[in-house]
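tool=predict chain=A
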Amino acid sequence: MHMKQFLNEVASGGKGLHPRSESVDDLAAFQPVVETALEAEALGYVEQVIPHKESHTGHRFYSALIVIGLTDAGREVIAAP
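tool=predict ok
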């Protein structure tokens, strides 16, 4: 997921994010979303990211995350062409 797409999703109310299902394939496909969220937090685009790791597959994938608040910097990224 691209940063701007992620920030737009957060801005539109998608603050709780999770994979489509708990299958290993869906969990694996969700990991880039988590990486984007953590990068957004590190860059100061969102106030906080709270990730959760699953334990039933043995892979310890992130299985959900909560994103708290866009910052002014995050809104600027969205507004940029």
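The first helix runs from residue 3 to 11. The mean pLDDT is 92.
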